[in-house]
Design brief:
The complex is a heterodimer of chains A (about 250) and B (about 300).
Chain A lengths: L2 E12 L2 E12 L3 E5 L6 H8 L7 E6 L2 E2 L5 H6 L2 E3 L12 H7 L9 H6 L2 H20 L15 H13 L5 E5 L7 H18 L2 E5 L3 H7 L2 E6 L2 E6 L1 H6 L1 H10 L1
Parallel strand pairs in A: 3-8, 3-9, 6-7, 7-8
Antiparallel strand pairs in A: 1-2, 1-4, 4-5, 9-10
Chain B lengths: L1 H29 L7 H17 L4 H7 L3 H24 L4 H21 L23 H19 L2 H11 L1 H6 L4 H27 L9 H14 L5 H16 L6 H16 L3 H17 L7
Helix pairs in contact in B: 1-6, 1-9, 1-10, 1-11, 2-4, 2-5, 2-9, 4-9, 7-9, 10-11, 10-13, 11-13
Classes of the chains: A alpha/beta (about 250), B mainly alpha (about 300).
Bound molecules: adenosine-5'-triphosphate and magnesium ion.
Chain lengths: ~250, ~300
């Protein structure tokens, strides 16, 4: 199994606060890699480091063997790392369909003038974007609401659309930040199935931040546990669940 | 017809011209960037045209090209405005929201003061007796009209293209747009440059139309007028700037019989519209239409 993401001694501090403190791990291709930890453990910050939204204080990470530390977010996304946000950041004032068209930006090339003039190459590309967008909407079950504004969707649908939007980027790695937050039990159940389906269909590697323990345990191949920015455990779900440091971190945090 | 054009020709051309200037502000706004730099590029374009049309150094060029000098002036104004916008945009577009607006106002002011003091721009008096392209005022519609049509077509095609989608994504959520693979700085600068090129060309076309060109052409007042066109017309649809410019630029004319009271009414329209029409007139019409469709279509909530 080949390594797709490798992190070496990642650190990030905000003023005096060590949000992420020398975290090292590697993610294998095709894996669902869980990331858990109490509130404020640094999980979202770690995602922000990987996607370039927050610069690292020190340390480095590589993707498919190439160093990508310090690249701007659009370059990292362009190489195939897509994400969702904990506090949903859809393009709320645009239609559902437009949301999944936009994120195909990096895998298309039409420039200003060929788009305006409607040159053959740009028309062909536009058709492909359209097809792909509908394909994604069918997959996430929102093709009936394509024209609706993204901001008007129900909460659970917004979460699904955000995953759809990330998938439209045709990523090799997908970072999901608490995709089940705010969902009811039935929705969480269907989300689990959906994430499995996505892995089958897109052969995508996933990093998953999630608080809901059954969901994480059921889905993930391996789990990394963060506590106050530091790694306290890394292993398969069963081992992590038995780990003394993990139990203490969670009990202490309650 | 003749009489109508005599009376209203100037107003009609002014409406076309103001609509174009509204669009020069609309482009950066498509990417969510509040730039008030348009009057600066408009003034710059006008000076370029005025100088090329009057400076003794350009006489041989004028003699050689005849009326062909005018398209050359438009081209030069567009190019120089575009290059200047590129330089300014790359540094200024790091700023956001109101700070960007302030920086662009500063740019307009700096340019105005420079033009007031340079010899080539005629100092405080400016440049006058600019040769006319047409004998009649209304004939200038023959250049502003096609440019407006071209601009409308451009915007229409842009909004449904990859580039336009990138701009809209940045307007909606710049951080998310970056995370979706969009080079946000590139597209913000691009939109700013397109707006500047348009303003520059409009300035170059306006110099002969207005006959004189001076530092009063690019001022803070103009920035606010253009912004009002776009905001009151609607900043989220290409029809917004057009409608806003036509309504607001003709308002003072329509209210002329009221003498000075017209300034008060003009101001009140601005205040009332910005309070009650947060999405502009076009936005309000769109909402009205959606309501009607919802209430009449059998599939009610589905739309
Ligand atoms: N931009 C920032 N500036 C200052 N402090 C920050 C910033 N971002 C995160 N932090 C702090 O870093 C720590 C880690 O935050 P982070 O959001 O990564 O936690 P998390 O594990 O995702 O928590 P949660 O489960 O609540 O989402 C927190 O103490 C947070 O307050
Ligand atoms: Mg978080």
């Amino acid at each position: 199994m080949s390594v797709i993401i490798q992190a070496d001694g990642l650190c990030r501090n905000f003023g005096g606060l060590q949000a992420v403190d020398s975290v090292s791990f590697s993610v294998n291709e095709g894996e669902i890699f869980g990331l858990i930890g109490p509130n404020g453990a640094g999980k979202t910050t770690l995602f922000n480091l990987i996607t370039g939204l927050t610069p690292v204080s020190s340390g480095s990470f590589s993707y498919q063997g190439r160093a990508i530390t310090g690249l701007p977010p659009h370059r990292i996304a362009g190489q195939g790392i897509a994400r969702t946000f904990q506090n949903i950041r859809l393009f709320k004032g645009l239609s559902v369909l437009e949301n999944v068209r936009i994120s195909q930006h990096a895998c298309t090339r039409t420039g200003l003038f060929s788009g305006i003039l409607g040159l053959p190459a740009s028309r062909r590309e536009e058709r492909e974007v359209e097809e792909k967008a509908w394909e994604i909407l069918k997959l996430i079950g929102l093709s009936g609401r394509a024209a609706e504004l993204a901001g008007n969707l129900a909460y659970g649908d917004q979460r699904r659309l955000e995953i759809g939007r990330a998938l439209a980027l045709q990523p090799k790695v997908l970072l999901l930040d608490e995709p089940a937050a705010g969902m009811n039990a039935a929705e969480k159940q269907s989300l689990t199935g959906f994430i499995r389906e996505v892995r089958e269909l897109f052969h995508v590697t996933m990093l998953l931040i999630e608080h809901h323990v059954p969901l994480v345990m059921g889905l993930c191949d391996r789990i990394l546990v963060l506590h106050f920015g530091s790694m306290i455990a890394l292993g398969d779900p069963a081992a992590v669940q038995q780990d003394q440091a993990v139990i203490e971190a969670y009990l202490g945090a309650e | 017809m003749e009489g109508f054009l005599q009376n209203y020709g100037f107003l009609l051309v002014t409406l076309l011209q103001q609509s174009l200037l509204a669009f020069s502000l609309y482009f950066p706004l498509m990417a969510g960037q509040l730039s008030l730099a348009s009057p600066g590029f408009y003034a710059l374009g006008g000076y370029i045209a005025a100088i090329m049309s009057t400076a003794p150094e350009c006489t041989p060029l004028r003699e050689k090209l005849g009326t062909g000098i005018y398209p050359l002036e438009w081209l030069a104004a567009g190019l120089i405005s575009g290059v200047l916008a590129l330089v300014i945009g790359i540094s200024a577009l790091r700023l956001r929201g109101i700070y960007l607006a302030l920086a662009t106002i500063a740019f307009v002011e700096i340019l105005r003061v420079i033009c007031l003091n340079l010899e080539i721009t005629g100092g405080a008096i400016g440049i006058f007796d600019i040769p006319q392209l047409f004998a009649e005022r209304w004939s200038y519609g023959l250049i502003f009209g096609p440019l407006l049509l071209l601009t409308l077509l451009f915007v229409y095609r842009l909004e449904n293209s990859r580039t336009g989608r990138a701009l809209k994504a940045i307007r909606e959520d710049e951080l998310a747009a970056g995370a979706m693979g969009i080079h946000t700085t590139y597209y913000k600068v691009l939109a700013f440059v397109i707006g500047a090129v348009l303003a520059g060309i409009v300035g170059a076309m306006s110099a002969p139309f207005l006959n004189t060109w001076n530092a009063r052409q690019g001022t803070f007042d103009a920035s606010i007028s253009y912004l009002a066109y776009v905001l009151i017309g609607g900043s989220r649809s290409m029809w917004g700037p057009l409608l806003g410019a036509v309504l607001l630029a003709s308002l003072p004319e329509l209210l002329r019989p009221l003498k000075d009271a017209r300034l008060i009414i003009n101001g009140m329209v601005l205040v009332v519209a910005s309070i009650y029409l947060p999405q502009g007139i076009v936005g309000a019409l769109g909402r009205l239409k959606r309501c009607v469709v919802k209430n009449t279509s059998p599939m009610g909530g589905e739309r």
